[in-house]
Amino acid sequence: MPKPEITKEMPKAELVERIKKGDIRAIARAISLTENNDPFSHDLHAALLPLTGKALVVGITGSPGSGKSTLVDQLAVALKKTGKKPAIVAIDPTSPFSGGAILGDRIRMMHTAEHAEIFIRSIASRGATGGLSRFTFDTVRVLDAAGFDVILVETVGVGQVEVDIVRAVDTCVVVLVPGMGDTVQTFKAGIIEIADVFVINKADRDGADLVLKDLRLLMSVGEVSDAKFKNPIVKTIATTGEGTQELIAAIDLHQKWLRSSDEFQVRKNNIARGTILALLSDLVHEKLFKECPDLLNQEIQKCADRKETPYQAALTLLKAVGV
Ligand SMILES: Nc1nc2c(ncn2[C@@H]2O[C@H](COP(=O)(O)OP(=O)(O)OP(=O)(O)O)[C@@H](O)[C@H]2O)c(=O)[nH]1
Ligand SMILES: [Mg+2]
């Protein structure tokens, strides 16, 4: 008998039950409710919360075209082979993942040669504000509740929000490539400091060893006092899958270290703190735009005309929204 359609009227408990069973349409529904900031989604997330906390969230970041999607593909397929249930969340991918039927709502299933089905959700970052990071982790929460045990989040580490996203994962993999002067230049944004594991992809090209040398040098400089974890560096050729197993082992090594140290709790707390603070400022902004857009414009004008300091304006606005 075909399952009943998922409708807005469907009771929360039933939707939660179907998500728990890994029902793709229920997952898609939950994600789109979240994306539309539907009030129902907040209740839904609260109901999903007890089902979460089991997935390992791995961030893959690096400059455009460095081979992140190809690498994520390989990782997902390799993980699937070992009996894991991986899912992919890709932020603004400009290059498509291999094949796959489009399920709507930016969700696809990747069909691999091994007939393994891998869930992929892409998220557009263009035009998105701070909400991007909130939405990414709400999506991750739905997937975690649905029983996906490794969630690979691909993002180009350029904007602040994207850096915030990779900062909030369990293991952050930074992908570098030869011949781009990549090591120092591209990652001034602070990406290199948040890396747990480094990948030198396109190791089939000249210059991979040079990147390795640069990276080791850079790391030895940073290693002044309490470098508690020696970041593994893995060379990969994502197009052939070479190095994939080593990368999985390096991620594993990082997780073993993290879970055996105080850093685990520190990281969890930092993530929670960052998420709450970001959400608070989002909520205040939303309230302002909704409840007193005219006052906001007046205050902007006063401030621009130097009749008021920004501090005075902010206080007036906070009072107006009852904070
Ligand atoms: N030679 C070589 N090419 C590779 C390797 N890995 C990926 N590529 C190629 O590099 C190009 C970009 O790969 P993607 O996986 O789309 O890179 P990406 O980092 O996801 O790109 P964006 O999402 O656009 O930032 C593709 O043509 C890949 O086939 C590799 O190890 N060696
Ligand atoms: Mg990509």
Strand order of the largest sheet: 3-4-5-2-6-1-7-8-9
List the ligand species. guanosine-5'-triphosphate, magnesium ion
Low-confidence runs of at least 5 consecutive residues: 99-103
Largest sheet: 9 strands, mixed
Helix content: 40-55%
Q: SS-based structural class? A: alpha/beta
| Mean model confidence by pLDDT | 84
Q: Number of DSSP strands?
A: 9
Query: What is the string of SSEs from the N terminus onward?
Result: HHHEHEEEEHEHEHHEHEHHHH
CA distance, first residue to last residue: 52 Å
What's the number of helices?
13
Strand percent estimate: 5-15%
Give the overall form: globular
Query: What is the rounded Rg?
Result: 22 Å
What does this structure look like?
It is a single chain. By secondary structure, this protein is an alpha/beta fold. It has helices at residues 12-20, 24-35, 39-48, 68-81, 131-145, 160-167, 182-185, 191-194, 208-222, 244-259, 263-291, 293-304, 310-320; strands at residues 56-62, 86-91, 101-102, 107-111, 117-123, 150-155, 171-176, 197-200, 233-235. A nine-stranded mixed β-sheet has the order 3-4-5-2-6-1-7-8-9, sandwiched between helices. Helix 9 (208-222) links the parallel strand 8 (197-200) and strand 9. The longest helix has 29 residues, at 263-291. The radius of gyration is 22 Å and the shape is globular. Mean pLDDT is 84; it is low at 99-103. The structure holds guanosine-5'-triphosphate (GTP) and magnesium ion. Guanosine-5'-triphosphate binds at residues 62, 64-70, 93-95, 156, 201-202, 204-205, 237-239.
